[in-house]
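INFO  loader      accepted 1 record
INFO  loader      residues=64
INFO  predictor   begin
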Amino acid sequence: MVDKLKGGLDQMKGKLHELTAKRNELVARSQTAAAPSQVHDALRSLDAGDPTSAIGRYEERIRR
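INFO  predictor   done
INFO  writer      dumping tokens
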């Protein structure tokens, strides 16, 4: 009976290890999928191509 319980415990530990690895893989895939959109949003907010854009926004606020 003890051997049977130990075998069941070992199987459960193995299954737990598999599920933990699967969860970690899914989290990593999710983060990888979200990264390009975060980079795109950051680049869009920077608007590094036009250094006068900050001045233009400031002038627009003054006009309003």
